[in-house]
Amino acid sequence: MQVETLGILGIIFGVLARFWPVWIALAIILFFSLRFRERLGLYGQLFETGVGVAGVLICFFWLFTAIFAGTVAPFDPLAQFPIMKNVLPGAIEPESGQAFLFGGDRLARDVFSRMVHGSQIVLIIAPAATLFALMVGTTLGLPAGYYGGRIDSFLSFLANLVLAFPVILLFYLLVTPGIRETPIPQWMAGVFFIFPIVFFVTLFWTRYRSRPQLLAIQLAVTLLIGGWAYVGLVFDADPLGIISISSNQLNIFVAVVFASSPGVFRIVRGLVMDIKTRDYVAAAQTRGETPWYIMLWEVLPNARGPLIVDVCLRIGYTTILLGTLGYFGLGLAPESPDWGTGIKESSRLLRAYVHPALPPVFALMSFVLGLNLLADALREQSLKD
Amino acid sequence: MLGFILRRLGVMALTMLCLTLVVFFLVNLEPNLKKLAISQLDMRSSAEELESWLQKNGYRQNFFVRYGQWLGVVQKQPNIDPETGVSSPRFSYCDEPAEPYYGGILQGDFGCSTKFKVPVAEKLFPALGATGILMFWVMVVMVPVALLIGVLAGMREGTRTDRTLSVASIATTATPEYVSGVIFAVIFASWLGWLNGSAATATRQGISFYNFTLPVMTMAIYGIGYIARMTRASMVEVMTQQYIRTARLKGLGFRAVVIKHALRNALIAPFTVIMLQFPWLLTGVVIVEVMFRYQGFGFTLVEAASNNDIDLLLGCSLVSVFVVLSTQLISDVGYAYLNPRIRVQ
Questions:
Q1: Structural contact between residues B247 and B261, judged by C-beta atoms closer than 8 angstroms
Q2: How far apart are CA A78 and CA A84, in angstroms?
Q3: What is the C-alpha to C-alpha distance for residues B283 and A324, in angstroms, rounded to an integer?
Q4: Of A321, A382, B106, B272, whose CB is crowded by the most CB atoms within 10 A?
Q5: Do B182 and A376 touch (CB under 8 A)?
Q6: pLDDT confidence tier of residue A112, bands split at 50, 70 and 90
Q7: Is B288 within 8 Å of B219 (Cβ atoms)?
C-alpha cells in the first residue's frame, strides 16, 4: 500500500505548526523579559549579547517543548503503526491523517513524537540530578575548604577516588540489572538524598536560631517536605502515592549524582578557600559567628556567580551523560523515547536509513549548546561586575 | 621535588588499592556471579548445579581471601578433584600449576577471560596497543588544531575572529562523541561515500585513511573545543601582561611578540588541560570503538562488562584507573616543571 507524503516545505511548516504552544510561550517570555529587562538583574543582562539571547531562547524552547510535549507530539511515543515502518519524513499516516514529520523508525514509531517526548525525560532527570549533585558537593565542599586539614584531605581523597574512575566504567558497574537486585542503589540514594535536608536544616538553624518561632516553622516545613520526598524516593513508600520512582530510574539518578558531585565538590572547595581570606569573613569571625553560619551565609552567597555558571554547564554535561547511558542501553528501558536510546537504535541502521538518527542527535546537541551558550553569557556578565 | 613525587606515588597506590577493592566488590555481587555461572554452564542448570560450580571454582571463598589472591598476596590453591586427587586447571584454556602458588596482579598474572577463553593478558595488551594507535592519531589531530584555534582567538580579544572561533568551540563541546559520530557517518559515509563508516577492517588489514579518519575525527572534535577555550583564556590573560606591552613598545612586530613572548607562557595552562583530558578520552574511546567496531580497549571493556567477565573487567579497570592517575601525576609534575614560579616555592 502506497503512503502519501508531504514535500519539504510541507514538512517544515508542519513542524513549525506543531510547536505552536512553544512559540506562544516563547513570545510571552521574550516580551516580558525585554520589557522589564532593567529590573531583572543578571537575567535581564543576558539579553544584551547575541550569545545570551540564543542561549536563553534554546533553553526555554526545550523547556516548553517538555512541558507541552503532549500537545506538540501528534502520536504516542510508543505507539506502533506497522504500515509506517522506516517511512521517509513527511509520510502521512492513513488512519489519523497526521504526518510522520520526521519519518518512522525501525519499529514503525513516529520519530518526531519520540524526540518531543524524549525531551521530557532529559529535562526532568538532568536538572534534578544536577541539583542533587550541587547539594552534595556544596555540603561537603564548604567544610573541606573552610576547615582545611584532615577533613579536607579525607574528603578530597574520596572525591579523587570517584574522579579517577572513567565515567563509562562507573556506569557499567553501577547501572546494571544485577545491581538492582541488591540494595546498593537504595543505600546510595539514602545517603545522597539526605544531603538536601541536612543542607536546609543547617541553613535555617544557623541564621534563625535566636528566633525560635520562625525557626520552628521553617524546620517543620523542611522536614515535612524533605521527609516526604525522601520516603517516596528512597523507599518508594510515599503515603500519599504521588512521588514514586521506578528502580531503574532511581539507579540512573543515583549513578549520575554520584558521578557529578565530586566535580561540584572541587569547585566549591576552591571557591571557599579563596573567599575565606576576605575581610568580611574575618569580620564575621570577630563577631563570634559560628563556622557554619559563615560558610552558609557569608561565603556561599559570594560564590554564587561561578556556581551558577557551573550549574548551567553541568546540566549540559549531565544531559551528555544521560545520552551516554542511553547509547549503551544502560538503565533506561529499551523502548524509552529519550535521545540517547534513540541515537543507539538508529545508529545501528545508519547504512539503510539516515532519518531516524538525525532528530535525537540535533535535539541533544542543540539543548547542550543552548546551556553552554547560556553559561558563557553568564560568565561574561559576572566578569563585567 | 623527589619527595613530592614519592608522596604522590604513595597516594596513587592507595587510590588504586581502594578502587580495585570497590570494583572487585561490584563485579562479585551475587547476581553477577549467578550470571557468570549460567553463562559457563547452560541456561537449564539447576540452582544446585550453579552453586556447586561456584563452590568448585573458588567463588565462594571469603571475599578478602579472593581479593588477596587476585592481588597476589594470598596463595591460590589448585583445583583438586576430591575423588581422583588429580589437579586440573579451572578453565581449560588457561594454565595453572598443580601446587599452591602466588598468582595475582603483583606477579603479573591478570587471570583468565571467560568470554574470550584466553588469559586476560593475551586479550588486554593487544587491545591496548590498538587503542594506543587510535589515541596517537587523535592527539596528533586534536592538540595542534586546538592550540591553533585557541591562540588565534585569544590573540586579539573581542574581534570577529575571536567571536566566531569561540562560538565554534562552544559548539564542539556541546557535541559528544555519539552525536558527532552519527553526524559524520551520515555525511561522509552515507551521503558522500568518501569514508568507511566502520573501522572493523583496521584491526585485520591495518589502518588506512579510508577506515580510520571517522573514528579519529569523532574523538578529536569533542576535545578540541575544550582545549581551545582553555588556550584562549590563557592567551587573553598573557596578552594583557606588562611584558607584552613592553615588547610592543620596544618596536617588535605583532607576530614576533605573539610567537616569541606570548606563546610560551600561554601554553602552560593548556598542557595541564590536555593531560587531564585523558579520563574523558577514555570514555570517548569506549563510545567510538563501539560505534565504529574497532577492536581496542574500549571494545574489550564493553564486552567484558556486558558478559560479566570478572577477570577481564578487573584488568580493564586497573588499566584505566592507572592511566587516569598517572596522567594526573604527569600533569602535576609537568606543571611544576614548566612553571618556574611553582618550582621555587
A1: yes
A2: 13
A3: 9
A4: A321
A5: no
A6: confident
A7: yes
Phi-psi region of B308 (alpha: psi -120 to 50; beta: other; left: phi over 0): left
Flag whether residue A369 sits within 8 Å of chain B, measured between CB atoms: yes
- Report the alpha-carbon distance of residue B86 to residue B74 in Å, rounded: 22
Q: What percent of chain B has pLDDT over 70?
A: 88
> Does B35 contact chain A (CB < 8 Å)?
yes
When mean pLDDT is compared across A269-273, A371-375, B49-53, B145-149, the lowest value belongs to: B49-53
Give the other-Cβ count within 10 Å of A291's Cβ: 14
Is B34's pLDDT higher than 60? yes
Chain A residues within an 8 Å CB radius of B7: none
Which chain A residue has its CA at the smallest distance from B229's CA? A376
CA dihedral (B175, B233, A129, A150) positive or negative = positive
Q: What is the pLDDT of residues B189-247, one digit of tens each?
A: 777 777 776 766 666 666 677 778 888 888 888 888 888 888 888 888 888 888 888 88
pLDDT at position B110 over 60 = yes
Q: A100 has which bridge partners? A: A91
**Nearest residue in chain A measured CA to CA from B185:** A350
Residue B230's SS3 state is helix
Tens-digit pLDDT profile for residues B249-293 = 888 888 888 888 888 878 877 777 777 777 777 888 888 888 888
Within 8 A of A168 by CB-CB distance, chain B residues are 282-283, 286-287, 298, 301
Of all residues in chain A, the percent with pLDDT exceeding 90 is 16
Q: At a CB cut-off of 8 Å and minimum separation 6, what does A97 contact?
A: none
Chain A residue with minimum CA distance to B22: A173
Q: Measured between CA atoms, how close is B86 to chain A, in angstroms?
A: 36
Contact assessment for residue B178 and residue A324, using Cβ atoms and an 8 Å cutoff: yes
> Beta strands of chain B (E only): which ranges?
112-113, 118-119
- Place B88 in a pLDDT band, splitting at 50, 70 and 90: low
pLDDT given for residue A166 in this prediction: 81
CA end-to-end span of chain B, whole Å?
A: 11
CB neighbours of residue A180 within 10 Å = 18
Which residue among A179, A328, A369 sits closest to B171, beta carbon to beta carbon? Answer: A369
Total Cβ atoms within 10 A of residue A100: 30
Q: Would the pTM count as exceeding 0.90?
A: no
Contacts of B301 in chain A (CB under 8 A): 168-169, 172
Nearest 5°: CA angle at B299, between B277 and A114? 85
Determine the Cα angle at B248 with ends B245 and B254, to 5°. 120
Q: Which residue of B has its CA nearest to A181?
A: B31
Q: What angle do CA A180, A183, A186 make, to 5 degrees?
A: 90
The residues, any chain, with a CB within 8 Å of residue A376's CB and separated by 6 or more, are: A51, A55, B166, B170
**Alpha-carbon span A299 to A275, nearest angstrom:** 6
Most confident listed range (A3-17, A107-121, A163-177, A256-270): A256-270
Q: Which residues in chain B touch residue A371, judged by CB atoms under 8 angstroms apart?
A: 174
Between CA B81 and CA B111 the distance in angstroms is: 21
